[in-house]
Design brief:
Structural class: alpha/beta
Low-confidence stretches: 352-390
Strand content: 15-25%
Number of strands: 13
Helix content: 25-40%
Radius of gyration: 23 Å
Number of helices: 14
Strand order of the largest sheet: 7-6-5-8-9-11-10-12-13
Length: 390
């Protein structure tokens, strides 16, 4: 079979039906089955546990990898890097590193450390900032990002645990312990109605069904394969982009783990608010970025949480490990008021890591003295709730 130049590029991706005759597939097979190459790859892994495409290429060249005679086109090293990273367990971000990154001062395209670190920790932070595109500038006394927004780059790393932003940072199944804790915090009771937007494969809905029954749960999901799973489990599901749906019913509780990409979690929570009846409870897993980012969308959302007297809990840093990501998350709980009430700051807590698989909460904030600095440094620009967020 003859391929055009464009087709030769296309078959280098594993999604192509002709991938098995590609140069990339040939290189992946050879490199994946060579122990010495695995050793070289492991030596080049970065602080997040991943290896970059350029490092895979360097190992390929150094090892003088020979392609099979049937191999067509040129090797796509991004695809091979994905192969090496696919089964790699996510590396949790250490508390001291997370604290340092969340408290950096960002001005324009520069990011400056707000706290002194010992040499070992500084070396790690410097490697992260360099991998994200920052370069130390002695004159500016900060890391300068020549080709991007440092806040966006840092937030992406804290959200995903990855130095390379995933093409689509969307669906990660909610681990059962976290789903159960979320439902417990919502205080779900028999007879209540529940909405789960972006229901995935039913991790949260299944826990809710134990309390209210499947007939009282409505799910929205955009992916066909996930809808098929939900229907096979007996749930009522509408296949749609939830953000395009307008409410025809209001619910006692809205419980969700929305996608985080491009701050979609904020958009989903604000849209879901329309579906919540007065006195109803919202429970959402969201990106930790809502606690430290300073762009308008985030500061307005924090003001909204203040107006709802929301409870924000920083989840265990390994909460999503079984779902294959080191994503840093928070749980947001609030009730929709029956009428306007006085603004009160959102309450922020830190989930404690315990031997028990269930996530425990530190209800006594006096014990949070050693908690991440984010608790103490969360920006508090008091503003009224913004209608434009809906």
């Amino acid at each position: 079979m003859q391929f055009t130049a464009a087709q030769l590029l296309e078959i280098q991706f594993s999604r192509s039906k002709h991938y098995r005759v590609s140069a990339t597939h040939s290189a992946s097979l050879t490199m994946g089955n060579c122990s010495s190459i695995h050793e070289q790859i492991d030596l080049r892994r970065r602080i997040d546990g991943t290896v970059a495409a350029e490092d895979v290429k360097a190992v390929f060249i150094a090892a003088n990898v020979q392609l099979d005679q049937w191999a067509l086109g040129e090797v796509n090293f991004d695809e091979i890097a994905d192969d090496f990273n696919l089964e790699r367990e996510p590396v949790a971000i250490a508390d001291v590193i997370r604290d340092c990154l969340t408290t950096m001062t960002v001005e324009g395209n520069s990011a400056k450390l707000s706290a002194k670190l010992d040499r070992a920790d500084y070396t790690k932070v410097n490697k992260i900032l360099e991998a994200l595109g920052g370069k130390w500038n002695k004159k500016a006394n900060s890391h300068v990002f020549a080709n991007g927004d440092p806040e966006e780059a840092i937030a992406s790393y804290l959200e995903t645990g990855k130095l390379d932003k995933p093409e689509k940072f969307g669906f990660f199944p909610t681990p059962e312990p976290l789903a159960r804790e979320l439902v417990r915090l919502v205080g779900l009771r028999p007879g209540q109605t529940v909405l789960e937007p972006e229901a995935g494969i039913g991790g949260i809905a299944s826990v809710c069904a134990e309390i209210v029954g499947k007939d009282n749960i409505t799910c929205y999901e955009i992916q066909q394969k996930n809808c098929d799973v939900l229907r096979s489990l007996g749930f009522r599901v509408e296949q749609a982009d939830f953000l395009t749906v307008e409410p025809i019913q209001q619910f006692s509780a809205v419980i969700l783990n929305p996608p985080f990409e491009s701050q979609a979690d904020i958009a989903h929570v604000m849209h879901a608010f329309k579906f919540l009846e007065q006195g109803g409870t919202m429970g959402a897993i969201m990106s930790i970025a809502i606690t430290f980012r300073t762009n308008n969308k985030t500061t307005q959302f924090r003001a909204f949480l203040d107006s709802m007297r929301a409870r924000v809990t920083i989840n265990d840093k390994n909460a999503f490990k079984e779902s294959g990501t080191a994503a840093q998350t928070v749980t947001v709980i609030f009730q929709k008021p029956h009428e306007s009430s006085t603004t009160s700051p959102a309450r922020i807590e830190v989930a404690r890591q315990t031997p028990d698989p269930m996530l425990a909460l530190d209800d006594d904030l006096e014990h949070a003295a050693k908690a991440p600095a984010i608790v103490a440094t969360l920006p508090r620009k008091q503003q009224p709730a913004q209608a434009s967020l809906f």
